[in-house]
Design goal:
Layout: E1 7-13, E2 19-25, H1 29-34, E3 39-46, H2 57-75, E4 80-88, E5 91-98, H3 101-112, E6 121-126, H4 131-146
Antiparallel strand pairs: 1-2, 2-4, 3-5, 3-6, 4-5
Length: about 150
């Protein structure tokens, strides 16, 4: 299975009107069909937001540094696949699907060890049908229909 780097980005808003950029990976059908990545891991990093909901400059730089490290660390041997991320509304969120939660946790801790402790909130759920991912993917189809 080949992991591509094809993504789409959609603009959304919180109920309070703050911007949220939603970025979703495409072309993951083979990974879904394999049935091996059954657990969805949602990592949320709440931050002090600017008025528009975006991170301040220092937080944005830290996000830009950490995100590719997370991807490389988790996707190195396809332990997990990043399927999407959200930025805005006072939080940075990453969504992964993984085949082994304990190893995912170990790698997450090792990846973030050099950084100051971040106020991460982590939610893990069985999602063998990739329901959450399919909902994110629907955003692209909805946008195409609106055009």
């Amino acid at each position: 299975m080949k992991l591509t780097d094809e993504w789409f980005t959609s603009l959304s808003h919180t109920e309070g009107g703050q911007l949220v950029f939603v970025t979703v990976r495409k072309e993951l059908e083979q990974f879904i069909a394999s049935g091996s990545l059954r657990v969805r891991v949602a990592i949320s990093w709440p931050y002090a937001a600017e008025a528009d909901g975006m991170p301040d400059e220092a937080t944005a730089q830290l996000i830009e540094e950490i995100e590719p490290l997370l991807r490389r660390t988790m996707e190195r041997d396809k332990l997990a696949i990043m399927t999407g991320n959200y930025t805005g509304g006072g939080a940075k969120d990453w969504t992964f699907y993984t085949r082994h939660l304990p190893t995912f946790g170990e790698r997450l801790n090792a990846c973030l060890a050099p950084y100051p402790t971040l106020p991460l909130e982590i939610d893990c759920q069985e999602d063998p049908d990739w329901t959450d991912y399919r909902e994110m993917l629907q955003m692209e189809q909805d946008e195409e229909e609106d055009e």
